[in-house]
């Protein structure tokens, strides 16, 4: 076991991953307010939206309006998903600090999610990465289905190593190891990281865990014990991927912050303000928060 990091960086992916699968229309103004509340709570990285086909993911069709509506705060980085050059070029007017290309360790998921094979996806990403770097925009690679796939079942670490090598080969600086359908358990997640670490160093990887089977906090701890110090999470545990039926949201940011603060690890995040942000979006969506920590704190506040 490595010494635990003293500080962890969290990326709140709630406005993008959290809301992309939402069936009811969520006004751009609500998404903007959510971003503002997250930055007020101390989040320094927020994944705001994606530049994908509005036919495939209608909820993200307001990408431009949302990005233009945000009152940017110095020191906060705003990232967006761009699957191809068309998406990247569309994003430029909105000045993202970081773009995310997203591939999959499973062929079937790659086809369902972005309509091409893994090899074709890398061909599409390569010019995006090159163009982003030429403009001084940071690049992250998301690697879906690094533990399990909704169509193929278990995904072996060798597939993760293969994808990480391809991402590295086109110059992606940082990769996120995603358990898209939340089936991972600590040892499997560690094996996915071990595979990724064949190509990336520990400072260039992050964890992205969905909580379908309630394992995401445990998986976060397992990754922390390897020295991973960057994680995605979603306020109120919002989310789910449109191409991973039945998968629930990301691990709730509130739950990860509670874990980290309880272990004496700094995040720079004000948990109470974060819980308020989660309460805000949950109320807008008309359903209770998925965060166990937020539920406990909100109940205590009422008592
Ligand atoms: C990737 C594509 C666009 C390929 O879609 P395609 O149909 O293969 O693309 P195409 O190049 O053949 O173009 C077809 C049409 O799409 C348009 N198009 C083409 N590109 C764009 C674009 N960038 N923005 C807007 N429109 C676009 C293009 O202009 C054309 O429009 P038409 O002529 O028919 O009117 C499509 O498959 C798509 O949008 N997929 C959605 C992917 C997505 O957003 N998935 C969810 C996010 S990934 C995720 O959640 C996982 C993650 C990251 O969180 C980690 C994890 O947990 O695993």
From TrEMBL:
Gene3D superfamilies per UniProt: Aldolase class I
Alphabetized InterPro entries for the sequence: Aldolase_TIM, HMG_CoA_lyase_AS, HMGL, PYR_CT
Classification via CDD domains: DRE_TIM_HMGL
GO biological process: ketone body biosynthetic process; L-leucine catabolic process
All copies of domain Pyruvate carboxyltransferase, residue ranges: 8-275
Enzyme class: lyase
Coiled coil start-end: none
EC number: 4.1.3.4
Keywords noted in UniProt: Lyase, Metal-binding
Catalytic activity: (3S)-3-hydroxy-3-methylglutaryl-CoA = acetoacetate + acetyl-CoA
Metabolic or biological pathway: Metabolic intermediate metabolism; (S)-3-hydroxy-3-methylglutaryl-CoA degradation; acetoacetate from (S)-3-hydroxy-3-methylglutaryl-CoA: step 1/1
MF-aspect GO terms: hydroxymethylglutaryl-CoA lyase activity; metal ion binding
A Pfam family of this chain: HMGL-like
Family named by the database record: Belongs to the HMG-CoA lyase family.
Protein name: hydroxymethylglutaryl-CoA lyase
Annotated source species: Hydrogenophaga intermedia
């Amino acid at each position: 076991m490595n010494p635990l990091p003293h500080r962890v960086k969290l990326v709140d992916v709630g406005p993008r991953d959290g809301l992309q699968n939402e069936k009811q229309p969520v006004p751009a103004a609500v998404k903007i307010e959510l971003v503002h509340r997250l930055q007020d709570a101390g989040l320094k990285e927020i994944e705001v939206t994606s530049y994908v086909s509005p036919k495939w993911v209608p909820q993200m069709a307001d990408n431009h309006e949302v990005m233009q509506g945000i009152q940017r705060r110095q020191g906060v980085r705003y990232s967006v998903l761009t699957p191809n050059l068309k998406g990247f070029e569309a994003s430029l007017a909105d000045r993202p600090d970081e773009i995310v290309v997203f591939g999959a360790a499973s062929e079937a998921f790659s086809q369902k999610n972005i309509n091409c094979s893994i090899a074709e996806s890398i061909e599409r990403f390569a010019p995006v990465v090159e163009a982003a770097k030429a403009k001084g925009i940071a690049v992250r690679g998301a690697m879906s289905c690094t533990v399990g796939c909704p169509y193929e079942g278990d995904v072996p670490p060798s597939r993760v190593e293969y994808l990480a090598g391809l991402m590295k080969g086109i110059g992606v600086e940082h990769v996120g190891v995603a358990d898209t359908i939340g089936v991972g358990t600590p040892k499997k997640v560690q094996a996915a990281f071990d595979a990724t670490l064949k190509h990336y160093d520990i400072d260039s990887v992050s964890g992205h865990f969905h909580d379908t089977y309630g394992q995401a906090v445990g998986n976060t701890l397992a990754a922390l014990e390897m020295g991973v110090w960057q994680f995605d999470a979603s306020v109120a545990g919002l989310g789910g991927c449109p191409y991973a039926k039945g998968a629930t949201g990301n691990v709730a940011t509130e739950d990860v912050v509670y874990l980290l603060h309880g272990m004496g690890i700094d995040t720079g995040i004000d948990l109470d303000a974060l819980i308020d942000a989660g309460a805000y979006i949950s109320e807008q969506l008309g359903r209770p928060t998925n965060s166990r920590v937020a539920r406990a704190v909100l109940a205590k506040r009422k008592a």
